[in-house]
Amino acid sequence: MNAIIRNTEQNSSLINFVFLISIVFLPLMFISDGVSKVLAIYGSSFSRISLITRFAFETIIVFWIILKVNYSIVKYLTFIFILLVFFLLGQSSIGNINDISESFITFNKYIYLFLVYLFLREIIQLSEAQCNIVFKLLYFLFFINILCVLCGYMFKINFFEAYYSKEYRFGYNGVFLAPNESSYIFMSMVSLFYYRAIYENKSKVILILSILASLITGMKAVYLFLILLLLFHAINHMKKKYLFILISFSILLFGYLIRYLQSDEFKSLIALFIRLYEEKGLLHMLLTGRDDLLINESPLVFKKWTFINYLTGGVNIKIYSIEMDFFDLLLFFGLLGSILYVFIFFQTFINGLLKHAFAKFFIFSILALSFFGGHFLYSPSSAVYFSLVIIYFRMSK
Fold first, then answer.
1. What are the transmembrane regions (predicted)?
2. What value does the mean pLDDT take over residues 288-307?
């Protein structure tokens, strides 16, 4: 009996520990992104404060895993260990074992998404009051970023630009540093606000503001996601009351677009896309040149591969990167490693949500867009936001 009581108390302590770390690190990671961006803009020799914060978060997760360890966690970590074996085999077979540090960082980024979810899924066991605190903090932080995006656009604030070092690119992403990775944060949060507004009849104001902010990001992936979301809504929820909201919003959006279409930023963005299209066609424009990387770099990787590499992968990440998630995954982990990675991803994020229509739409839309745009599977920045959205869906299904 005493052993049972001790186990119960330990589990309760570990769950409360997850709550405490969540409410501390959510704002900490948000602030560290902003600090990193300031340092990057002003040319600091070291600007990745956000990486230190996320490494500290990961260290705490590892510490929690050691304390929490049970059969479920051991089984989960066994799959990740097999991935590590594939990774080491691939790196050793291309002779990169002595210069493995950069590739190991990338491996860590690939598994970071799984470790973050493993930790944050304990939120499901929190009390309702504690859950509300975690998610309200998430809403508040992203609302701050929405205001940063809108203010950045209205007052031309360089700090809030997504492509602050590229004058020919238009877009605002607020305090987030990397535009490619922040695009998945915007998609995740728009999806969360959409779900709350449409499925749970929560306020639609934050949804409208998040969509407006997304339209100012200048990111093709975000624009494509909004189109997919509109199609999903039209097919599944086009009832009279929602039709009125959609028409009202479309009128406001049309007014905004008229102003935007006349702006210098839009003209420069269109000029860039036209130049890419004229150079090498529609696919080259949509992939922003990634098709060249795929065609030119893949043969250079395969040239060094043996049979074992086709199974376990093996690439020097400092030299070769396609920036298309599916192909990067194959090059990094090989055929067997990629199948295992997809299996872990399915078990972690998709299993149990196959009957959840909007969750399926959300996950597969992001995977489809990452197929063309990359930076999702190995993005530490978006891992927390994506995981929390999935957890929210699991709690409300």
1. 12-31, 51-69, 76-94, 100-120, 132-155, 175-195, 207-235, 241-258, 326-350, 362-393
2. 67
Distance CA 148, CA 170 (A): 15
What are 335-380's pLDDT values in tens digits?
A: 999 999 999 999 999 999 999 999 999 999 999 999 877 789 999 9
Rounded to two decimals, the pTM is 0.88
Mean pLDDT of 268-295: 57
Residue holding tokens 């060249």? 292
Number of domain units in the chain: 1
Query: Of the ranges 50-64, 98-112, 242-256, 337-351, which one carries the lowest mean pLDDT score?
Result: 242-256
